[in-house]
Amino acid sequence: MAEEKNYQEAYEKEHIKTADLAERVAVLEAKNEELNFKLSRIKNNPLWKASAPLRRGMHFVIRQRDRLKNCGSIRGVLAKLDYKKIERKAMARYGTESFPDEARAKEERETVFDRMIKISILVPLYNTPEPFLRDMITSVLNQTYQNWELCLADGSDAEHGEVGRICREYLEKDSRIVYQKLLKNEGISGNTNECLKLATGEYIGLFDHDDILHPSTLYEYVKAVNEQDADYIYCDETTFKNGDINKMLTMHFKPDYAVDNLRANNYICHFSVFAKRLLEGEELFRSRFDGSQDHDMILRMTDRAKHIVHIPKLLYYWRCHEGSVASGIDAKPYVVAAAKGAVADHLRRHGFTHFQITSTRAFETIFKIRYEIIGDPMISIVIPNKDHAADLKRCITSILEKSTYENYEIVIVENGSETKEIFEYYTSLKEYDNIRVVTYEKPEGQNGFNYSAVNNFGVKQTKGDYILLLNNDTEVITVNWMEELLMYAQREDVGAAGAKLYYGNKTIQHAGVVLQLGAHRTAGHSHYGQSRENLGYMGRLCYAQNVSAVTGACLLVKKSLFEEVGGLDESFAISLNDVDFCLKLREKGLLNVFTPFAELYHYESVSRGLDDSGEKAERYNRESAHFREKWKTVLEKGDPYYNPNFSLDRSDFALKT
C-alpha cells in the first residue's frame, strides 16, 4: 500500500507539472498569435511597403560593414577581393571544364583494376522534380567506371507518379538500375534503408536524389580501393544553383580524416562510399537522427573503418534549391537537434561523459564541444625571459587575474637579463607561492640564445603533470584558457593543444600551423593576419580541430609525453622547434589540436626581434634547411589537414592559380 501511495503522489506531482507546462505553452501561443497579428498589420501598412527600398539599402550597408569588419583593415579588404577573384577563376576550372575528354574517358573506362568492385549507389526518392531526377541518373550513367548499380527506393506520394514512370524508363535501358516503389514514405532514413535491401555491391555509395556526380568519381574511388585499400572514401564538393554545375556558390576543399573536425562539423558529407562489411550488426541510417542521419552514419562508419581515404578532387555537385539543406539551415530546423544527438552518441561510444555540445557563431551545426576535466592536475607554465620587465609583468598579471583554473605553477626561466627592473620584478614575485624564477646557465660552446635549450631546462624544474610552454610577450584574454587546452591535452589520443593568438591590433597571429606554408616551404600559420571576427575558411576559426602543429608560444602537453619525445630539439635553436616537437608527437600516432576557445594576445617578436635580416635571417635559413631535410618524407606527403588544392603561398586558403 505504501508503494502504491508513493507512486500516486509521484504521479500527481508530475501531473501538476504537466498541467503547468501546458498552461505556459498556451500563454506563449496566445502571445505568438497576437504578435503575428501585429506583424501582419505592420506589413500591410502602405508606409511599410513604401519604405521597402530604403530598408533594403540599409541592410545592404550593414552587410558591407560586417564584411569590412571581418576583413580587419583596408589591406584585409584588398586580400579578400583578391581571394574572390582567384575563387571565381577556379570555379570555371572545377566545373564541366574538369570533365575527362573523350580520350581520357576511354582510358578510364578501359582500366582493369585488380579489384573491380561493384559499388551500389543508394538514392532515396521522394517527389523528385523531373529535371533533378534525370540529371542525377544521367550523372551515374556517365561514370567512366562501369561496375555499379543504382538502387532507387521511391517513397513519392500519389500525386508524383511521374517519378516511377521516369525510373522505369531508365531501367528498361540499363539493367544496372534497380527500382522499387515503396508502399509508404518512410522518410529519408527509412527510404535509404530500403535502398540498401536492393544492394548487391561490395561497397555502398550514398547519393542524394537532386545532386550530380563528376564522370570520374567512381573511377577515382575504385582506384583508392586498389592503391590504398580504402574502406571509407570521400571527396571535395561544391554547391551549385539554377541547375548549372558551373554556377557554383561554395566550393568545399576538405582535410583528410580528422576526428575532432568531424565531431564539431560534418565536413565529410558527400560523396561517402564505404565497404558494406562496415555495416555488419549496424543500421545504415537511424531514424531518430533524421535530418542529420548522414553525420551519425559517418561517425559510426569512420569509427569502424581501417583505411579512410580523402580524394582531394571536386567530384560531387550539391544542388542548392528551395527546401534543400544546401540552401540553409532554416529549411530544416530539426537538423541541429539531430546533429547534436549524433555527436553525443558518438562521444559516449568513445567513453566521454559530462560533455556539452553547443552551436557556434559560424553555423548552428558547427559545434563547440566542452569535455569534462578529469581530476585536478597541476599545470606547470614555463616562461623563458630575458629583461623586458613590462612584457613579463603584463603576461604574469593576466594569468593571475584572469585564470579560472587554480592548480598551476609558473616557472620563469631567467636567461641572461641585465636590467635592474627585471630583477626588482623577480623579487616582487616572491610573495606568490606558485611562482618561481630559475636561472639557465648557458653551457660552454653554446652560441647565442637557444629557445629549445632554455625551455628544456625549465621543464626539468617543474612539478606539474602538464607542461604549458608560454612566451613572455603573451597576455591572457579567455579566463578559462587553461581548461580549454587541458580538456584536449588530457585525452589519450592527443599530443599537444594550442591556443588562438592575436596581435595587439586583434588580427590573427596563430590559428594552427600548416606544413610547407610560406616561402621557405617549412611551416606557416593559417588565417594569418585576418580579423578576430573572421569565421575562417568554412567556419574553421570557430571550432576545435586537428592540425599538424601548434605554436610553442602557447602549447600544452603532458609532461610524460614531453619527456618521451625528448623535449624540444635543441638543434632548432630559435625557429621550428615547436613544429618539430608536434611532428614528433604525430609520429607517435597522436593528434595535435588547435582550439579557438583559448585566446591570448601575442605581441610576437617584441622580446627577441624578427628573423628577417642579417645573422638572424641566415640562422633561420639554416634551421629551415635542417627542418626540410629532417622531415623530408612528411613534407613530400603534404599536410593532411590542408587540402593540396590550396596555395602554399598564402595563408587564407586561397586556391592554387
Automatic annotation (TrEMBL):
SUPFAM superfamilies recorded: Nucleotide-diphospho-sugar transferases
InterPro entries given in the database record: Glyco_trans_2-like (IPR001173), Nucleotide-diphossugar_trans (IPR029044)
Start and end residues of each Glycosyltransferase 2-like domain: 120-269, 380-565
Entry-linked Pfam families: Glycos_transf_2
Cross-referenced Gene3D superfamilies: Spore Coat Polysaccharide Biosynthesis Protein SpsA, Chain A
Protein name as it appears in the record: Glycosyltransferase family 2 protein
Naturally occurring in which organism (per UniProt): Suilimivivens aceti
Lineage: Bacteria, Bacillati, Bacillota, Clostridia, Lachnospirales
